[in-house]
Records
---
Amino acid sequence: MTDHIPVLIIALPLLTAFILPIVGMINTRLRNILVFLVIAAVNLMLISLVQRVSIGGEVLHYVVGAADPLQVIREGLDFPIRIVLKIDGFSLFMALISGVITFVVFLFSLSYIKEGERKNYYQLLMLLIFVGMLGMEFTNDLFNFFVFLEILSIASAALVAYRTDRKHPPYAGYKYMLVSAIATSFLLMGIALCYAQYGSFNIDYIHGMMKYTLLDKMALVFMLVPLAMKAGAIPMHMWVPDTYSEAPAPISALLKTASMASLYGLFRLSFSLFGNPLEGGGMNYHTLGWIIIVMGVLSMFVGVTMALVQNDVKRLMAYHAVSQTGYMLLGVGVGIAVHAQADGGSAFKLFGRVAMMGGIFHMMNHAFYKGLLFLTSGVMARRFGTRDLNRMVGLAHRDTFTTVAFVIGALAIAGIPPLNGFSSKILLYESVYQFSPLLSIIAIFVSVLTLASFMKVFYSAFMGPERKDMIIDATPVSKGMILGMSILCVLVVGFGLFPDLVVGTIVEPAIESLVTIL
Amino acid sequence: MTDFFLYVTVVLLIFFGMVALIYKRNLIKIVIALNIIEAGINLLFIALAYRPNGTAPIFTLAPALGELKMVLPTPQALILTNIVIGFGTTALMLTLAILTYQNNHTLDIRKLRGVENND
């Protein structure tokens, strides 16, 4: 039974998703319980793997459809066939993020999305996004990666356009689907270039055979640019504000995690597929690292300056999402740039590793506090019937819990000490300073601007006199919404207070599995 | 020589698709452009798998082949998957285009520009 956990984690939500509309027709309460059980079961299975994979350092393989699923290379062959799932520290780390956020989003949407609003399909698509993320994170097969990316994109686009009766969501959904379709088409072209040379889709196998020809370099470009596009890095960020602001609030939180899965793909491919930097190889990793760093710094700076001038609360948060993605790219970019240096990896041991740790730990922290902020923005937008900050005032008088949650999220995103944003940003500041002081100063400056723009939101929406006449929807915040937000609050505060525990348990193995080349 | 023309066709299809994608302003025409690019990439995969004078990749025929070669089966299976995915993408994008037209009474992206806050 425990051997089959890798495939069960993907198959369980996938199969449940398709029986969901039928169950929903019979009884909606039964459907809610079913979805709850499935998401909880997947989360429990993921947590049960932590002991083996993260702490024990084991790498789990699973060959889908084989007689003996644990035997990666069949007898008599010297290359792997069939689709192979591979769970190492980094996969599990990302899957845990997806699991927690999906669980929270499910709790939040229980009453946020009304039963009359085609909730059957909402939950179906939500589960499909979950499947897409898990599949991308677990697979060791390039084509399978592509298929799960498409599942993720199609389900996300449908959910972005969920409120079809309004003016803008269908166009936002169209835009997202267009960007995804272009990105995935070119990703497939990169995969074709790899297949043409090595005759396999298995990431580990191709990595072992890698000859770093011109075609490989083209394949690298064709794979990394689309994934950066899906992750929302500058200059391919144009879809982010429209999409995140038009989607229902819980879905914005889920979309953020979905683009994190693309970021996972970017890091995974640049290390596990194309990287063997310590031995040199034929590729200039210093340049690759610097390209990622420049992309990151631009994302950070342009994102935050665009956020400062927004009046729409969700667009503002979406631009901050672009800006925070820059931190992750910066951290891992520094890691890649120094990993390849001719000094035999001493710079990497000195600070490159810590920079990568900061970047990857920031992914988890970002998913949590940004999810929290998007959820509170849902409460704000529903109360006032608008997303315009100029038409919001005095929310703190009636929604105390939302106010506290927002303050926690806002302070965490700005990197204020006892919260989780600080614990990953301090790792980044320290290590990037040793690489290039200027980059570190830009990073700190961007944090200050982030704080400034969230102060603006806090003052205009939560402070001020209580204005009952401006409130359109006065239904109290339901238990599910409070529970969802409090889970994230606890995680944000807890990860800020005990960062060593988290870094030691799951972040270190994630780095280890990225940089160790089998 | 056949190979050469196949790859030229691939490049031309992707190139024309990109040109249409960049210069067309109509939501429906953008979907068509995307389909052309997808067709180009599908053709690339099939061209990679093609072996001149090869036979169909059927397992039971394998012992009787002798000198003959088989075309590669995996890319064909994958392209079948990709065609289905492309069908899903196209259907969804056209649906969203219809909804956009219903709500905004235009398909021109220059007029749709700027998602404002007015809900």
---
Amino acid sequence: MTPREIPIYGIVAEFASPADLLEAARATKQAGYTRTDAYSPLPIEGLAGAVGGGHSKLPVLVFLGGLIGGASGYLLQYYTAVHSYPFNIGGRPLHSWPAFIPVTFECTILGAALTAIFGMLALNGLPMPYHPLFHVGRFARASRDKFFLCIEARDPIFDAARTRAFLETLSPTAVEEVPS
Amino acid sequence: MTEPQATTGQQVLAPGHSMASITDKVSAIVLTRPVGKRWLFGFTLGFILTCVLFTTIANLLVTGVGIWGLNAPVGWGFDIINFVWWIGIGHAGTLISAILLLLRQNWRTSINRFAEAMTLFAVSCAGLYPLLHMGRPWFFYWLMPIPNTMELWPQWRSPLIWDVFAVSTYASVSALFWYVGLIPDLATLRDRTTSRLGRMVYGVLAMGWRNSAKHWHQYETAYNLLAGLCTPLVVSVHTVVSFDFAVGVVPGWHATVFPPYFVAGAIFAGFAMVLILCIPIRAVYGLQDFITMKHLENMGKILLATCLMVSYGYAMEIFTAFYTANTYEEYLMHNRLHGPYATSYYALWFCNLIVPQVLWFKWARTNVWVLFIVSLAVSVGMWLERFVIIVLSLSRDFMPSMWGQYRGTPWDWSMYVGTIGLFITLLFLFLRFLPVISIFEMRTLLPEAKVGDHGEHS
């Protein structure tokens, strides 16, 4: 991040309803801001797209996780039953693949589910116990009933005074600076 | 999608609520509500019974599985009955949280959190049984494919090892799914608690969740993917449990109807347990606005539907017993109907087939007492079902010289009652320390939450 004169993280505006926030986020995007994020107590459809998110690599990762899980499960059984510990039971084939399906299936699900959970956390950069926004007292209501839009200081067209003035035009219920 | 609230009379959320009121009402149960007498009573009861469980386990480890009523020919008794009973109960939680999410059944929202918690606690109780059934549980790691000095590996062709993988995957995925669902609500508790300790504990658990729209997007993607993964998982778990029986050749077990019939039975038992828990919880914590009559009625309908599926399973068992013209299968059915355990078989029919028929009537589905009693009957009936399947088949298999009788000893019963105690204890701790209803999902039910491009949200 380039050093700036004003050591602030950004400017945050508070809104009263999901509709106001969505409208404000879209207006901000139109105004050319790219380093923004919105905060709401519930997921809002289309909001992530308005603040430059909304594309998730997760489905691909989960697919790969499932594939790796399933393949490891099958190979584990194949290696142990055919090579490491071949055990002849009534002349039945050592590579008895139909019997390997349940464990392969469970390993697929396990691999995919673990990827979904830890992938989601990793892509979101969690756990992250500290964040500048937590300095803003009213931000605690982002988990209750208020809606926030933050334009970050690292945005190329960020200017403390002008950005603040811009946010004021979006009919917020409050605008506050976020200390870095 | 049509507005679920629009239907008159029955709603999934009582009118007049806002984001703030939902948040405050649910989080107050954890944050500000003083410890009540009823909570203390329930927790103490659960704790005493948990001590009974620990006593039983201690005796079991010192003396051995001989304290149970197991003996030749009945080598599977209460331990396996209760294992299947508990794991079946767990299935409703996953069904509510995963399958009903994918089917966009909004009414699941207020009951999914504690149904998932119920799953987790039921699976914990279930897991104890096979572990202790081993006799020398300290060798449990022999079940795992761990390289060892004996150069032995698990036998992959056995349903019992499939069971190890299925149940442990199910337990891990359910626990993580539940935790992921809790993260935004833990952040709400972190932001709303006034105690320093609470802020620290909920803060650590929430992992710095800050309700960012970008995070929500990833979160919802992950949540839907998990729901998609849990759906086949939950079906596979009870299928594999039924393989424990169906892959064997014992009369009454070797049946292709077992997997679907076990899965339906699991959902049947699970919804009964959700109702047993949800009816008192909503009364004690005043949650009638969130868990409305519509929820109870819908669960009553599912109970009736699964009752009919299970009935089909019972009918098929009788039909195949005679259709196969196999002496042993025929004798098994004769033994069920006229043998020494016939009372259990008729009681199972009464509890699982006859009592739930009352749910055809709307007045019954909308009466909490009727629902509660039906659910109790189903829970007993499903326990009897497993008793009939396991004990009757084992006590009368191929040769009369190998016949025997089985009954649970007091230690069998104390172990069973003890796991119920463990379940109650965990449930009461959950009620006290975590939001019993998913707060953020309840917010999405509000009319003002629907602002997206398509005017809908899951």
